[in-house]
Known about the structure:
Blueprint: E1 3-4, H1 11-26, E2 34-37, E3 46-51, E4 57-62, H2 66-81, E5 89-92, E6 98-101, H3 109-114, H4 119-138, H5 156-171, H6 180-194, E7 201-203, E8 212-215, E9 218-221, E10 228-230, H7 233-240, H8 249-266, H9 270-299, H10 303-322, H11 330-339, E11 355-363, E12 380-383, H12 404-411, H13 414-437, E13 441-448, H14 454-465, E14 473-479, H15 480-483
Parallel strand pairs: 1-2, 11-13, 11-14, 12-13
Antiparallel strand pairs: 2-3, 3-4, 4-6, 5-6, 7-10, 8-9
Helix pairs in contact: 4-8, 5-6, 5-9, 7-9, 9-10
Amino acid sequence: MVYICIRSIPIYVINHIEHISNLLSRNNYPDATEIVELPSSGSNRIYFRLTFKHTGSLLAAYNPDVSENIAWHSYSFHFREKGFHVPEIYARDEDYRYFLIQDLGTSDLFSLTGQGIDNKVEGIYKVVLRDLLRFQIEGIKGLDLDVAYPVKSFDGNSVLWDLNYFKYYFVKPHELFFNESKLENDFQSFAGKLLETDRTYFMYRDFQARNILLHQNKPWYIDFQGGREGPLMYDVVSLLYQAKANLGDELRKRLLDFYLQELEKLAPGESRKFMTYYEYFIYFRLMQVLGAYGFRGLIQRKGHFLSSIPYAINNLIQLLGDHSLKNEFPELHSVFEQIISLGQYKVKKQSENKLTITINSFSYKKQGYPLDYTENGGGFVFDCRALPNPGRIPELRDFTGRENPIIEFLESKAEVRSFFTNISAIVNQSVDNYLERGFDNLQLNFGCTGGKHRSVYNAELMAKHLQKYSDRISVQLNHIQLDD
């Protein structure tokens, strides 16, 4: 009997369980006593943890992208033959969609970094950088690049894909101003600069702390299926400039110096060439991750990616101060200057040990409901458009919901009072629960047609209502249309 630890089981999960059970049976595994779907990340891959009565656990993985799976499968066996710490693949189905793999637990370098950086954490990063060099220099030898996905080398097309990913999923959604032709010229020139490097090493592609698991007191490496032949710099930047890892300037410098010392031992003279292009790759990686954060956050509305944007922008601010691109790539530099000025990513400091409640008024017609840039991933959206609209009354139209004529008009309407009474009860329940559970953030959004009257009035009223929690919460009130 298999116990599936999922409260409500969607059809797609039942289908996966059937395939996994068949794969277990064909490879002489016992029935799992528990199958738990693991939290998803930014990819289409789905993981399940399988627990057995007497033999521990393993993971089952599903990915519909067969070409990517073939690359990962081939790379995994190659790296294990070289003694690299990558998870073992125990079995797969004939279609390269389902796999049984080694369970390395739940501890990763990113989570450890979040607990504070001390000498132990720095030491692990140094081990990781030494291992990275093994991947880059030894790992490429004998690697079957014919199965690489989506490309076998870091070339002009792959660079421009990432630059355009940045343009279409971050720059354009934020309606930044740029000259299309000039920016395209800068992209071409920037790509040319990156392609001047020696591109004969293994480029892991997603070498960051979340993909480094800590198992049996050693770092283990996952998610290398996008690897290809390429330069050294990209993966070092990916690790040291991971947005939310927030390593800090001094630690980054020490770790970079360590990497360069180790590089010189293996390839004398390469460290000087490395530093010639290093900062260009920092810019490139920042553009690539901002594109990913834009797609996963702004388009798919995944809170983790939205909350990472301010950290990436902070890295960009520092980089612009250290190594400006204004003379070499002026149009691209102009885009960067606009990005660091985006007000919505200047996250206000949270009050310690308090629940931060962000209250927004907004216009449905202009920008739509606000995104939540915290890890909470979203909150309430209250639609005020069913309430009497003072904007239709000529003598009230030019006032806002903060001014007496609008306040008096709305206060006189029984349906407005009933509306606020109802939503107050809902908000009270959530605030009490969030405080009890120690949550950090809650977002309350009030929308109306123009974002000036009904939404503003109710947002202001809610801020006053929440004053009864003032010793335990911090309120941030924003009127998006009034602040434009």
